[in-house]
Amino acid sequence: MSELGTARIEPDGTFEVGTTGYWRLVFEAGPRGIAQGGGIRVQTPGEGHSIFGLPGLEHLGDIAKKHWAGTARGKRQPVRVAARVTCSRADASVQATILPIWDVPETIWNSATHFRIFAVTLSKGVLKPGDAITIELGLEERDRPMRLGRSAPHKRRSDVVYPVWVDTGGHGQFEPLADPPRIRLVGAPACYADVVAPSVAAAGRSIPVRISLQDAFRNPDVSFEGALQVADRSVSLTPEDGGVKHLDLAPDARASCARVEVRGAGLAARSNPCRLVDGAPEYNVYWGELHGHTGISCDANFRGGVRGRPRDAFEYVREVVLCEFCGLTDHHNAHVGEHGSPSHHCRITPEQWAETQEAVRDAYEPGAFVPFLGLEWRDSRGDTNVYFRDHTGECIPAGITTIREIWQAYRGKDVLTVPHLHPHSTKGHGHAYKDELWVENEPEIERLIEIYSSHGRFEYFENEPHFPKAGMDPRSRRNTVQGMFARGHRLGITCGTDNHGATPTILGSAKGAVRGSMTAILAPELTREALWQALRARRTYGTTGARIYLDFRVNGAVMGAELDATTNRDVRAVIHGTGPIRQVDIVRSGEDVFSLAGEGKEDLTLAWAEDRDGETADYYYLRVLQEDTNMAWSSPVWVG
Fold first, then answer.
1. Which of 149, 190, 251, 346 has CB 3.0 to 4.6 Å from 258, enough for a Cys bridge?
2. Cα separation values, 355 from 163, 253, 264, Å
3. C-alpha to C-alpha distance for 420 and 438, rounded to whole angstroms
4. Is the separation of the CB atoms in 534 and 521 below 8 Å?
5. DSSP single-letter state for residue 407
């Protein structure tokens, strides 16, 4: 036994995600004992027991009927918990609460702590060696179980750890327990099959197809064993495959678009469309996430208990979601408070930046996966993602407080800034939305904009369907993508989830998880240099999550291009949907000038032309709406 004591979870072992039940965390005092006023602090990680219990249930625990838990925005909210804390000594008493983030002692802060911390204090008596404090997680006699987390640790994070800190002397000096308790959390049996084919490929050749089997919370079914019917082939998977299978298939030589169907073991799925062209494609289409967070981000950590690190996120998005690139954007705010304020930990430390740089360096594999180094910046303008070309990028230093100063500091360097338009980013942080803050633009650095995220759609003021969440709606018609275009800003389109779970592209809930929005990059090859140049060239489009194929051109120029003024504008597009298409629109300078009804078809070809005054400068882009409400937006082509 260590000098501090020992801790264990009963029952321990291996559990499926989402399991409900009753557990006990038992701490036994070590040789030092615990003096009156001392106690323990126990963190319940996001992957483990949720101290907030099951959604929709009112948990009345014996800790107290209500606790005031702080949020990252500084508000206090009542939290009901299903837990009880007891002490083994009859002549001792304990008091328990849940610490808001500003009350967590700085001595126990680290990159993995957050405000879900049980604070147990010895209010009367002392604990001698071997005496125990027991935290019951769930109250069986009241039918109030606890639920394990939804995200199964992937690879390196095989165990879920419950950190424990001990104050033996009663002076507020907490020391970490060297061997904290832990359980193993694994994914449930698969109920989803993601089938991914290249979005474009040469006709007459086999195409690579990847299959990923996932449970309701999008964890990989690493223990799956069985056979699947993939097109006309039977394919076997074993636990050694880890729920993922790669194979090559020969599509119908007569088809212009291929879709691969998978069935078996109670699963049914179909791949994204793969356009088949004569010869090598001009550009390949690569899919990924450009707006994702890990446990480094203050809000992912404080409010969600997320412990996933950059390496975990890159592994997940590549091996489970089957993306080809990813940019991580943990929070790095312009202004932070002193310890004890909610914003204190909303900057990336030098150690965390070095960790992210190493993860970006190690995850890069030309031809397979491209990671990007990035961060999410918040200042008086709002939120902006900042990306660096490679892992050597330098984090924004202290002293820089505005986006304009970032542009000045990084001018001439391989840096891109991508703003979001949800005004909530300024609400509650001492700033009101100000239209004039969006007037300026640095065209060599700010080349892209986010049109859609988990917060909603920010294309124009009305935004139906996918209207922004409450509090996220635009404050002005100019605070939209079309408003930015009207100011003369020439920006390509991206979409990102703003995932805060170290599981890029995934949006989760208590009932399950769904695929969130993604960005497509048009590039000749899957290398960092090729993708970076494509981002700078605005050869991008975004979707709400479906891998819809778009080829959009004006006078033969691909999306993102700038053309000289001309009278004739010849607009052409090829669209392959992941389901029936409801409507396709051509947008010219903020106005829908042509619409084509999908009539239930999944594959459409569009040709439209107009004559304009040769002096008139316009932009054109394509909007696609499917019957399932999935959407896609091309980057514009500018004429004049």
1. 251
2. 21, 47, 41
3. 11
4. yes
5. H
Domain 285-545 and domain 550-640 have a common topology: no
What pLDDT, on a 0 to 100 scale, did the predictor assign at position 569?
96
CA distance 501 to 498: 9
| Cα separation, 610 vs 607, whole angstroms | 11
pTM of the model: 0.88
With 70 as the cut, is the pLDDT of residue 293 above it? yes
Assign domain 285-545 one CATH number from 3.20.20.140, 3.40.50.980, 3.90.1860.10, 3.40.1190.20.
3.20.20.140
Q: Are 517 and 597 in contact (CB under 8 A)?
A: no
pLDDT greater than 80 at residue 96: yes
**8 residue type, one letter:** R
Q: Which fold has domain 5-186?
A: Immunoglobulin-like (2.60.40)
Q: Are 300 and 292 in contact (CB under 8 A)?
A: no
**Nearest-CA neighbor of 425 among 383, 485, 483, 396?**
383
The token pair that represents 310 in the structure block: 């950059």
Collapse the DSSP code of 226 into the 3-class scheme (helix H, G, I; strand E, B; otherwise coil) and give the result: strand
Task: Point out the least confidently predicted range of 184-188, 359-363, 480-484, 510-514.
Answer: 510-514
How do the domains of the chain map onto residue ranges?
5-186, 192-281, 285-545, 550-640
The angle subtended at Cα 578 by Cα 573 and Cα 582, nearest 5°, is: 65
Predicted confidence (pLDDT) at residue 469 exceeds the cutoff of 80: no
CB atoms within 10 A of CB 90: 7
State whether CATH 2.60.40.10 applies to domain 550-640. yes
501-546 confidence digits (pLDDT tens): 899 999 876 677 888 999 999 999 999 999 999 999 999 999 999 9
Q: Which backbone phi and psi does 420 adopt, to 5 degrees?
A: -105, 160
As a whole number of angstroms, the distance between CA 98 and CA 96 comes to 7
